[in-house]
Amino acid sequence: MDIRETVSRLMEDSEGLLRLKPAWVSRVFMPPGKRLGLPDDAYDVGERGYITERWLGSVTEAKNPIETPNEGLSLIYAPGGEEITLRDAVEAAPELIMGADYAKRRKGLGRLAKILDNDGRLPFLAHNAEAGEASYYFPPLAPMGPHPETFFGLHPFIVRERRKDIIARCLDDWERTDRFLALSRAYASVPDDGFHLSSGILHAPGSALTIGLQEDSDSRSIFQGQLGDRLLDKSVLTGDVPPEELEENGMMAFVDRLDWEANGDPYFYENHHTPPVPLDGGKTASSEEWWIFYNTTRYSGTKLIVRPGCAVNCVDRGAYNILAWSGKGTFGGLHIKGRSPGEDEIMVTSGRAMSGVQVTNTGDNDLIIFKFFGPDINDDAPILKRYA
C-alpha cells in the first residue's frame, strides 16, 4: 500500500478531513473510572492493567511495561479495511496534512491529547525536560470520581530551606512513598477549569475525568510507589535515568531533575491556573469559543459551543484534531456525535483548517467540540500574568 497515495485520496474524498478511530491505552497504576464509553468488561486487559486513557489524534506510541504494537496511535478510517496510523500518514505526507511551510519547520504534529479516566488519584509524578509541558482540563458534564482534587508542587518551605534531602529520603523508602503527598498541596478539580504545568513539576492528578494536552511524549518519572494496597515497581521511577547517573547520584538524580523553584512557588495557583478565556470575537448568538489550553507556545486548544439549530464557519491557522464532547451535528459535512467513540474524532488538515469548516448543530442541546493544536500555530493564545 502506498500510504501517501491513500492519504491523498482520502483527503480528496473528504475535502481535507480524516475521520479517526479511538486509541485506547492501558495503565497499571489505577483501576478505571469506566467513563470512556466502553462496555464494562472491556476495561480489564489482564496483565497489562486497565484501559484508563484514550488518546486523541495521536502520533505517539504509549510506553508501558508490556509493549503492545501501535498502542496509543490513532488509526485513520480507510475503505477496504486498510489500517493507516496517523503517525504513518504524517510521515508519508507531512505537507498535505500540516501544510508545506509548517512541515519545513516542524517534524510531526508535536502534541499529544488524551482523556484520563481513573477511579482514584494517580501517583505523584513529574514530566522531565524531554516530555516537556502539560495541561489538564476538567470537562463539564462528567462524573468527578471519589478524589476530585490534584496535588501540585511542594510546600514552599521545602524549597526555601533547600531541603532536597526530604525528597531523597522519601524515594529511598519506596514502600512508604504514599506519605509523599504530605509534602504537597491539593487543589479542587472544578468542571470547566484547568491548569498548565511546565516540565519538572510534581503533581498527582485526581479522579476527575480529565482532558490533557501536552508535548509529544509519554515520558515521565513516578515518585510515589505506594498507592493504597498496591506497590508499583521502582522501574516507574528509574526507567528514564541512565544507570551510571543513578549509581553516581542515587535518589538525588531524580530530585535534581525537578524544577525546584516552580515546585515551591507560593503563587502556584495564580501562575498555573488556566480557566477558560473567550477568544476575541469568538462569541455570537449562535456559537462561542474559549481558550482552554494556553499559557505556552508548545500547543494550544479551544472549546467550541454551537447552539441547537445553529451553524458556524471555523477558520483556523493550521492543522488540528477535534473531539466532539456532547451533542450531535455535522463537521465539514461529516456526522459527529459526542460520547460516541468512532463518531467523535476528526483530523483537520492545514489547508482545510485555513479555508474553513462549517460546524452545524443538528440536535436539541449544545454541541461542544474540543480543538487541539500543535506548537506555534496560535500565537495569540493567552499568557498568564506572572505573580512573584
Describe the structure.
By secondary structure, this protein is of the alpha+beta class. The protein is built from 12 helices and 26 strands. The strands form 7 sheets. A 7-stranded antiparallel beta sheet has the order 1-24-21-26-19-18-17. A 6-stranded antiparallel beta sheet has the order 2-3-6-13-8-11, with no helix packed on it. It has a 4-stranded antiparallel beta sheet with strand order 20-25-22-23. The longest helix is centred in the first third of the chain and has 12 residues, at 3-14. The N and C termini lie far apart (56 Å). The relative contact order is 0.16.
Mean pLDDT: 94
Strand order of the largest sheet: 1-24-21-26-19-18-17
Shape: globular
**Strand tally, please?**
26
CATH H-level name of the largest domain... which superfamily?
A: Jelly Rolls
Q: Structural class, please?
A: alpha+beta
| Main sheet properties | 7 strands, antiparallel
The CATH class label of the largest domain is Mainly Beta
Q: Beta-strand level of the residues, as a percent range?
A: 25-35%
Our count of domains comes out at 2
The total count of helices amounts to 12
CATH architecture descriptor name of the largest domain: Sandwich
**Taking Cα atoms only, what radius of gyration do you get, to the nearest Å?**
21 Å
